[in-house]
Design a protein that fits this description.
The structure holds two protein chains of two kinds.
Chain A: H1 2-33, H2 38-43, H3 52-61, H4 68-81, E1 83-86, E2 91-94, H5 109-144, H6 149-163, H7 166-180, H8 196-230, H9 233-240, H10 245-273, H11 277-282, H12 288-297, H13 301-329
Antiparallel strand pairs in A: 1-2
Helix pairs in contact in A: 1-13, 5-6, 5-8, 5-10, 6-8, 7-8, 8-10, 9-10, 10-13, 12-13
Chain B: H1 9-26, H2 45-48, E1 60-64, H3 80-85, E2 94-96, E3 107-109, E4 117-118, E5 124-128, H4 143-152, H5 165-169, E6 195-199, E7 202-206, H6 214-218, E8 246-252, E9 256-261, E10 279-283, H7 288-297, E11 302-303, H8 311-319, H9 321-324, E12 327-328, E13 331-340, H10 350-359, H11 362-368, H12 371-374, E14 375-377, H13 405-414, E15 422-428, H14 432-446, E16 451-457, H15 459-465, H16 470-475, E17 478-486, H17 492-500, H18 519-530, H19 534-551, E18 554-561, E19 564-565, E20 570-571, E21 575-576, E22 581-582, E23 588-589
Parallel strand pairs in B: 1-10, 1-11, 15-16, 15-17
Antiparallel strand pairs in B: 2-3, 4-5, 5-7, 6-7, 8-9, 9-10, 12-19, 13-17, 13-18, 14-18, 20-23, 21-22
The chains are: A mainly alpha, B alpha+beta.
Chain lengths: 335, 590
């Protein structure tokens, strides 16, 4: 197992390098191939009516005129050993992993992402607990009571959950529970360490909205998996042995049905940790998702590159954890 | 700068008359300091008068912002709302008089004791600083601090976002001065020879050539003093040292800003601002609809951007008499227009351009911007709230708002294209209103045989890579480019230079999209720069406007309006004409 983890971690590093190369190429190389020169690129980061000298100064300050391999090398070097940036009156040190220096805000990217990370973590982890518990429970009960009113009703709700986009359910929930009936007024992020109760209260709506979508998916997935598993021969054998029904369902049925759930959960959680974009934008939560949106709107290439790398990192790590968890769920799996 | 506003012309005229009457009768003290008179209420009340006048102190004013400031550093910002907001924490040499109506277009001294004293040859402008103005730490502001503030804006690598008037206007070594951080010419790194400080309260600007509008330039936040010892370069945005009524308590970059009263600020030295609230916050990067909902719910008091509520809130406000009574729909100072490429055949023939002026349906253009609430049909390029503005309507925008097909065809005949021609239309694809306006124009022009192709580009690359690159426009046959403009200062020079002067045409990032290089326009703009007599200078505004319309170089669309919601809790609320939004510097809260 240890060898497997080390092997996967090394693979992760290579994967991240490939992701960084592709992302870097998309944002820095493709515009050049499309005919955009570095002067034109620099004009995006200057105010209205810039003089040629002003654009050239920005081009130099941002290092845009340097060869691409040099810019990429500088980026990688910053991740490993950090980087120094000229702030005019002195040098600002950006410690590793330094993901570059924002073209817009003239600040290192990494500290900005770090300050946004707790918001996304709080949102993703809280919502994932809700949807995992809710979705799997509903899926199991629906499968066990196939054709019942509960089954049809819950699957109907699940269908609605999958169909309704977050920006719709989010705005509706805000309108109803924040403005019309101010049960959760003034939804803003308060850190857990500042006030745990306020932290939870202000995140309830985003959690529910986000979990509603995912729980619906998980309920349907769990139901399908349970239905398939519960019709297997070994379930019949377990019952024939006289095992209690709870043991049959939980230990033999659910455990087997959970394997695909864990796979998709790893992917979903990894993706969310990279930024729950729509939820964060809808609820004005300053997490990585909102950071990403602003970076794209501002064409801030270092920020886009940084957040892409971080999202890729989360996805890869989440998948690694899932792979390890397989072995726990399914004793046949050995590494 | 950015902004907008509305009104029918008649309404504007009436409002302007009332405002001017109010200003003239009120004398110079006017409404810069709040009073306790009841004030007026109702829809648009804050356009021409102070709503909820009060001297009550305390409370928190919460601003919401759907984006983030370009910078909170006064030397590095170009957003109109930030020029408004910075008055809460800094004092530039000059500023705009805090009063409603047209009175708010007046440039008045702020840190300075009076307007700049110009030399006979027009090459030096001298400002004397008010004695006793202090920074938040209690140190006295000196002329060296003003000089340093101007100097640091020369480092365009670090401060690329603010205007660059100083490098173009100042003489001495300004053309090559690299800014104080790279300044090797003097030990104190203050080697900009074009700005001198004969004593601690006098600052002198030495110009390369006369520039009569220099007082307006001195009103840009870039002249707000920066103490050299407290300058942190690119990080100064995190805590600019205050001279205004409030100072930074905390700032999480692009997230949350909190201002608290500056104990070293004195109302007597800053009559255009007030220190009423005990705290001011700005939450950034909020969902625009969420901002509106919170405004209506009273959780927020001000939408910082000052560009008006979104469509959903707009219908709510307009359909509810009580909500509408606490809203305003002022002209924003922005003209939305389509520039017609004067160098591209067949549009290099004025009659072909006139055909476009006549054929365009102004009603459809206005509808694209949300109807009369979103903007008034523009008959001129200049918006009515420019000093020296005069109304005229050369192409029947108000008499034939749906377009005049007969006259358009007649002009096509005159330009040798009786069956029409083909050209391209560019617009910013991430601006739905502009997309709709482009589609509407395409339909209008199609009626007279002018076939157009639509080319949408993202705003971020519109000027730098596409519409603002004359070579690209020529290569791709782009004859019409949608755009919008607001003046950096409210006179003809401030409005027209970058969109109509031949000298403003640049190979990339060009904003004179019509590529107009008319000697008459150039001459008038040049005269504005050198005429010190205000009345004569202001008369050029309408002359430039008229000549551009005669050239048919620009098709005016609408004068933008913003539906602003002021709610009931704000005090001392009124629209400052120059900003086209509420005057943030004097607000209080109940």
């Amino acid at each position: 197992m240890i060898t497997f983890i080390i092997r996967r971690l090394i693979g992760t590093v290579f994967l991240l390098i490939v992701v960084s190369m592709i992302t870097f190429a998309i944002f820095f190389l493709l515009p050049r191939l499309a005919g955009q020169n570095t002067y034109q690129l620099a004009t995006q980061y200057v105010g209205r009516n810039p003089t040629r000298e002003a654009v050239l100064q920005v081009e130099q300050q941002l290092g845009l005129a340097d060869p691409l391999y040099l810019q990429y090398g500088r980026f990688l070097r910053g991740i490993v050993v950090g980087a120094h940036y000229n702030s005019g009156t002195g040098s600002t040190y950006c410690p590793p992993p330094c993901f570059g220096y924002s073209f817009r805000s003239q600040q290192p990217v990494w500290p900005q992402m770090v300050s946004d990370l707790p918001v996304t973590l709080s949102l993703a982890i809280g919502a994932s607990v809700l949807w995992l518990v809710g979705g799997v429970s509903i899926g199991v009960i629906s499968a066990l009571r196939r054709g019942s009113f509960f089954d049809r009703f819950s699957m109907g709700v699940a269908l609605a959950g999958v169909s309704l986009p977050i920006f719709f359910t989010g705005l509706i929930s805000l309108e109803l529970f924040s403005y019309k009936w101010p049960i959760f007024p003034n939804v803003t992020y308060v850190s857990f360490t500042t006030n745990p109760l306020l932290w939870a209260r202000n995140l309830v709506l985003p959690w529910i909205v986000l979990a509603f979508l995912y729980a619906a998916l998980y309920a349907r997935l769990t139901r399908a998996g349970m239905l398939e598993t519960m019709s297997e021969d070994y379930i019949r054998t377990a019952r024939a042995k006289g095992l209690p029904e709870r043991t049959v369902i939980v230990k033999h049925g659910l455990r087997s049905a959970l394997t695909p759930i864990v796979t998709i959960f790893g992917m979903d959680l990894g993706l969310l940790l990279g930024g729950a974009i729509i939820t964060e934008v809808t609820f004005s939560l300053h997490g990585l998702g909102l950071f990403t949106v602003m970076a794209i709107q501002n064409q801030d290439l270092p920020e886009i590159l940084g957040v892409t790398m971080l999202a890729a990192f989360f996805i890869v790590i989440a998948n690694l954890v899932v792979d390890i968890f397989y072995a726990v769920l399914d004793p046949r799996v050995r590494y | 700068m950015r902004r907008r506003r509305t009104f029918g012309l008649a309404a504007f005229g009436a409002a302007a008359a009332i405002a001017l009457a109010a200003c003239s009768s009120g004398g110079s003290s006017s409404s810069t300091s709040p009073t306790s008179s009841p004030g007026t209420t109702g829809f648009n009340a804050a356009v021409t008068s102070v709503v909820n006048p009060s001297t009550t102190k305390g409370g928190t004013i919460n601003f919401g912002n759907s984006s983030a400031p370009d910078s909170t550093d006064p030397g590095n910002t170009y957003y109109a709302y930030m020029w408004n907001f910075t008055r809460l924490y800094v004092m530039p040499l000059m500023t705009y008089k805090s009063c409603p109506g047209q009175c708010g277009l007046q440039v008045v001294p702020d840190l300075a004791t009076g307007p700049g004293v110009v030399s006979d040859n027009g090459l030096t402008w001298t400002y004397h600083l008010q004695p006793g103005v202090k920074f938040e730490d209690g140190t006295t502001v000196t002329s060296q601090d003003v000089k340093y503030a101007v100097e640091r804006t020369f480092d365009r690598g670090l401060f690329p976002l603010g205007p660059n008037y100083f490098s173009g206007l100042l003489g001495g070594n300004a053309a090559k001065y690299p800014g104080p951080y790279k300044d090797k010419s003097s030990k104190d790194k203050m080697g900009l020879t074009a700005v001198t400080t004969p004593d601690a309260t006098t600052v002198v600007f030495h110009l390369a050539k006369p520039f009569a509008d220099f007082d307006y330039v001195a009103a840009i936040p870039q002249t707000a003093p920066v103490p050299p010892s407290k300058d942190t370069g690119a990080n100064y945005q995190l805590h600019p040292v205050s001279t205004g009524p409030y100072m930074f308590q905390s700032y999480q970059l692009n997230k949350q800003l909190t201002l608290v009263p500056n104990p070293n600020w004195k109302a007597s030295t800053d009559p255009n601002a007030a220190q009423l609230a005990s705290k001011i916050t700005m939450t950034m990067n909020m969902n625009a609809n969420d901002i509106d909902s919170r405004l209506l719910a009273g959780d927020l008091q001000v939408d910082a951007a000052g560009t008006g509520v979104q469509a959903a809130a707009r219908s709510k406000i307009l359909s509810s008499p009580s909500l509408k009574a606490t809203a305003d729909d002022p002209l924003a100072g922005f003209t939305w227009f389509a520039a017609i490429n004067t160098t591209l055949a067949p549009l290099n023939n004025v009659h072909c351009r006139m055909a476009i002026e006549y054929a365009a349906s102004k009603t459809n253009y206005q509808d694209a911007y949300g109807g009369p609430i979103g903007g008034a049909i523009a008959t001129t390029v200049a918006p009515p709230n420019l000093v020296g503005y005069k109304s005229f309507d050369l192409y029947g925008a108000t008499t034939d708002p749906g377009g005049n097909v007969a006259k358009a065809k007649s002009e096509l005949q005159a330009c040798g294209q009786p069956n029409g021609f083909t050209t391209g239309i560019t617009y910013r694809s991430d601006r739905p209103k502009e997309v709709a306006a482009a589609q509407a124009l395409q339909a209008s022009l199609g009626q007279v045989g002018i076939k157009t192709s639509l080319h949408g580009f993202p705003t971020s690359t519109y000027d730098g890579n596409f519409a603002g690159v004359p070579k690209y426009a020529a290569q791709h046959g782009l004859g019409i480019s949608f755009y919008g403009w607001a003046a950096d200062w409210p006179d003809g020079y401030g409005f027209f230079y970058y969109i109509a002067a031949g000298k403003a045409i640049s190979p990339a990032g060009n904003t004179n999209l019509a590529q107009l290089n008319d000697p008459v326009v150039n001459d008038l703009i040049g005269k504005m720069a050198t005429t010190n007599d205000a009345a004569t200078r202001n008369s050029y505004t309408s002359q430039i406007d008229m000549q551009i319309m005669k050239d048919a170089a620009i098709l005016p669309g609408v004068w933008a309006k913003s539906l602003l919601y002021r709610g009931t809790s704000l005090t001392n609320v009124y629209v400052q004409s120059y900003y086209g939004m509420y005057n943030y510097a004097v607000l209080g809260v109940k």
